[in-house]
Every structure is written in C-alpha cells, then in structure tokens.
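Lecture notes, part 5. Sequence design as translation. It can be helpful to think of inverse folding as translation between two languages: the language of shapes and the language of residues. The source text, in structure tokens, appears below.
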C-alpha cells in the first residue's frame, strides 16, 4: 500500500469521514485515520456521533418513548396491551446493533469511494506528514499534499466530581447502563443532559437535573424554552436551576452530590450521576512540534471561514474548531474542505445551521431567537401556531407545543423559526431551506402545504405573522 496520498484525514467522525468520501469522489487519493475504540476494545469508524452520541442516543430515545407511550397512551387510542414490561437487555441490544450497522456502513462507503481507512492514532508532523501508530504499536508515516484534522471533542469533566465510569459517568457510559438506576442525577441541563435524563425517566428512574444557570435553555427562543420546561416538569424531570454542583463522592452503592443554590447548600443522594456539562475540543497528541497549527485560548484549532489552519494545506473541521458542536455542521465543513482542495467551490452558511433537541416534545430551531432579533434593534413581527389546532397533531395524540416564526418588518425576511412539538426536527428542514434561499414570510404563506400534516403549523405561523392565520385566532 502506498504511503503517499493527496489527502490524509485524521478522525472518521461525521466531520472527517464525509471529507474523506468527498475527496474520493473528487478523484483524489485519500486515507482516513481513526483511533476510536469501543468499550469491548473493537475499533470502529464513525466517531462520537455514531458510536457514543447522536445515533445510540436516538435509538434509546425512540425505544424509551415507545415504552412510555405503550404504558400511558395506548389506552387513549383504544388499544389495550395489559402489563407493559421493560426488557432493557433487548433495548440495549437493538441500540448496539443499529450502531454496528451504521459504523460498518462507513467502511462500505470508504470502499465504494476509494478511501483507505486506517485504524490507529494519527499525529501531524511538520511537512504535512502524518505519523500513524496502529493498535498493535506498529508505526508508519503517511505523506500528504493536504491534511484535514477532524479529531472531534471529548466530554468536559469536573475535578470535584471524579469520573469512575460506574457510578459517576459521562454521556457514553449513560447510554450503556444495563439496569435502570432508581435515582439518577444529571449535572447540566444542556441538550445531552436533557436527552439522557428523558431516556431514563421514561424507563422509570427518578431524575434530578442540576443546572448552574438560572435560565433554562438560554440558547433557545424563550417562548419555546418556557413551554419545554413546563412539559419536562409534567414528565417528572426534576430540573433545578441555579444549582451549582460543588462536589460528588461515591458512598456505598450510591453517590452523594453537593450543590448550592439561592436557598443554600444541599446534598442529593443518587444511584448514578451523569456529568453532562459540555464538551471540549480534543487535540491530545495530535500536533507534533513545528507544524504551525495554532489553537485558540479555548483549545479549538484556529481556522478561517473556510477551515484553513495557520499551516499551509492543513485544514480542520468539526467539533475541534469553532462553531456549534453538531454533526451536520462538521459534515458540511468536511465536504467544503474536500471540494476546496479539489479546486471546486465550497462554502458553509454558518447563519443557517439547524439545532434539534430530541426530547418529547422535540425542540428545533434555525436562525435568530426573538430575544436576539429584539437586541439587534430591527423591527420584527412574530407569528405562532399551536399544535393543539393541528388536526394531524391531534390524530397523533401529540398536540403539545407550537411553531413560531420571527420575521423582519421592513423586507419580510424570515429571521428565525422555532418549533416545539411532534417531529420538530423534521419540520425545521423546511425553515432551513426557506432561510437558505432568503425566503420572505410571504413565500412561506404562498407555499401549499399538504393537509393534514404537521408542516401546516409552519404555514399557519407564517400567516399569523401578518395576522392572516386561518386555523387559529389572530391576536
Ligand atoms: P467526533 O465524532 O468526536 O470524531 C472524531 C474522531 O476522531 C473519533 O473517532 C476519534 O477517536 C478520532 N480521533 C481523534 N484524534 C485522533 C487522532 N489523533 N488520531 C486518530 N483518530 C483520532 N450532534 C448532532 O448533530 N445531533 C445529535 O443528535 C447529537 N447527539 C449527541 C448525543 C451525545 C450523547 C453526544 C455526546 C453528542 C451528540 N452530538 C449530536 C454531537 C456530535 O456527536 C458531534 O458534534 C460530532 O460527533 C462531531 O463530529 P467530529 O467528526 O468533529 O468528531
Ligand atoms: P451544554 O454545554 O449545552 O452541553 O450544557 C452543559 C450545561 O452544564 C450548561 O448549561 C452549564 O451551565 C451546566 N453546568 C456546567 N457546570 C456545572 C456545575 N458545576 N453544576 C451544574 N451545572 C453545570
């Protein structure tokens, strides 16, 4: 096998593997080096997202929601199922098998696109060489015209909350529990904390979420965040805001968590504690002396808007660089870079990146929140439509939440779209496309939406922005 490539990608997560595939499609010779090891020691491509993030979490969110609906909701439909029982081992087997199928799929995609996949640790040396240390300790050096760094991120740990992987765990461990903890503590009410808290709550845990900030989901439009908080409370998620965790200690079979809030100091006893306080860029052992690649003060690899680092022909994409830590953001960066290397056009529109929280109801948004638009000073109008008025949502027994659109008064431009409700993550795609094409609110108003569908909520919200909603009272 030749050790010289047009492109060497370090990392095969959702930023690195698409870069490698697109490079192959662009007829460049390409290798993708990845060191991921699963808990059973096996190697796999796909990075955090496929192995320990997006995919396994969505598998468990789906299963746990079905379990909860079978228990609490089927009767409303007139379906009598008797005693609904949980087989967690089967649920976890399904999760693992989905992950395996998806990660094997990357190997097949590599083969189909002429990508050489290499398991091992990659380290950038000066002169665009990449030293690869295999799982068996063997070493080889690849020469590359271009190197793409896609080393991803790792969970932030709190010094006073010592991780042991059994009682005090991270998000990856929390996806692989083999029993439902009776009492689960979660530190951090971010996206990951809320999704994991939801899974285990639905499966029977008493869940307490401790969040240092006073405001719930500060990055989300606050109309939507307030609605979400109400639903999560009803579901039994005990979310304590303004609760700063100072320490945690394993005591016997459980964990004692100490935190303080406006009322004083508290101790909470749980059986498992998940630390979900964010992720940090992962660049350990990635850069040898003299590569010229710089990190910023928060440890992200410094890049320009086209993901070029300070070193010539070295690029960096995904969670390891600035911007939201989302799989689809990394994917677009990877594809852009592989196109730019091949001399093609490439660009990422950072203003139009959707975000989704896969709770029930789901939360999704794109563009600016109402608070951001207000702070910017531009005159704006708001249209909302409740799913309670959607025939399809009613038929689905999922009539909670709303769609909300924020638009400019001067030229009618759509500035932000926010949805909490059934399939919000799917519905937001229409808003993303609209904003990508700089659609006006009137464009959405004049677009025919099939009836009865959930997508009509976006149509009606756009109409409501001009007080022209048909299926809801205009206020
Ligand atoms: P990663 O996926 O972290 O991949 C980096 C890869 O590089 C890894 O395989 C790593 O082993 C390898 N690597 C690192 N350094 C080296 C080296 N020196 N040599 C060789 N290999 C190396 N995002 C979403 O968009 N939607 C979701 O629903 C979602 N859910 C999530 C749920 C959880 C529980 C978590 C933890 C994350 C979730 N995310 C989600 C975030 C998403 O997983 C990340 O944004 C995404 O994985 C980043 O992709 P990446 O390719 O930059 O890095
Ligand atoms: P995210 O970065 O979206 O994954 O969210 C992580 C959340 O954890 C943020 O909302 C932080 O405010 C919160 N957080 C960080 N440290 C602590 C702490 N010591 N106690 C409670 N919450 C914390």
């Amino acid at each position: 096998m030749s050790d010289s490539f047009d492109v060497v990608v370090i990392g095969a997560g959702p930023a690195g593997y698409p870069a490698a595939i697109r490079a192959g499609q662009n007829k460049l010779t390409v290798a993708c080096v990845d060191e991921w090891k699963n808990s059973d020691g096996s190697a796999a491509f796909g990075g955090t997202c496929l192995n320990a993030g997006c995919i396994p979490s969505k598998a468990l969110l789906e299963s746990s929601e079905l379990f909860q609906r079978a228990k609490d909701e089927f009767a409303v439909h007139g379906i009598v199922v008797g005693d609904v029982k949980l087989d967690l081992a089967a649920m976890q087997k399904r999760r693992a098998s989905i992950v395996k199928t998806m990660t094997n799929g990357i190997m097949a995609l590599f083969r189909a696109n002429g990508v050489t996949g290499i398991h091992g640790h990659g380290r950038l040396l000066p002169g665009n060489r990449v030293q690869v240390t295999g799982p068996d300790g063997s070493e080889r050096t690849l020469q590359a015209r271009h190197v793409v760094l896609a080393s991803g991120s790792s969970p932030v740990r709190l010094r006073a909350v010592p991780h042991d992987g059994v009682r005090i765990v991270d998000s990856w461990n929390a996806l692989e529990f083999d029993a439902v903890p009776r009492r689960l503590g979660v530190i951090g009410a971010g996206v990951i904390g809320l999704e994991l808290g939801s899974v285990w709550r639905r499966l029977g845990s008493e869940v307490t979420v401790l969040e240092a900030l006073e405001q719930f989901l500060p990055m989300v439009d606050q109309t939507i965040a307030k609605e979400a908080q109400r639903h999560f409370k009803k579901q039994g998620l005990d979310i304590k805001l303004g609760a700063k965790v100072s320490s945690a200690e394993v005591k016997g079979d459980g964990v004692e968590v100490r935190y303080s809030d406006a009322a004083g100091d508290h101790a909470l006893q749980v059986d498992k504690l998940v630390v979900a306080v964010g992720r940090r860029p992962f660049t350990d052992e990635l850069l040898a002396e003299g590569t010229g690649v710089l990190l910023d003060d928060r440890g992200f690899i410094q890049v320009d808007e086209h993901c070029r680092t300070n070193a010539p022909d070295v690029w960096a994409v995904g969670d390891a660089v600035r911007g939201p830590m989302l799989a689809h953001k990394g994917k677009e960066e990877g594809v852009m870079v592989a196109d730019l290397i091949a001399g093609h056009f490439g660009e990422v529109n950072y203003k139009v990146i959707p975000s989704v929280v896969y709770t029930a109801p789901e939360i999704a948004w794109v563009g600016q929140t109402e608070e951001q638009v207000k702070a910017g000073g531009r005159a704006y109008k708001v249209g909302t439509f409740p799913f309670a008025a959607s025939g399809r949502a009613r038929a689905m027994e999922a009539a909670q939440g709303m769609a909300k659109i924020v638009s400019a008064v001067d030229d009618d431009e759509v500035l932000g779209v926010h949805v909490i409700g059934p399939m919000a993550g799917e519905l937001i795609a229409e808003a993303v496309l609209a904003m990508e094409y700089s659609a006006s609110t009137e464009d959405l108003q004049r677009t025919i939406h099939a009836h009865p569908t959930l997508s009509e909520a976006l149509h009606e919200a756009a109409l409501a922005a001009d007080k022209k909603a048909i299926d809801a009272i205009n206020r």
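The translated text above is only one of many valid answers, since several sequences can fold into similar shapes. The CA atoms of residues 264 and 360 lie 32 Å apart.
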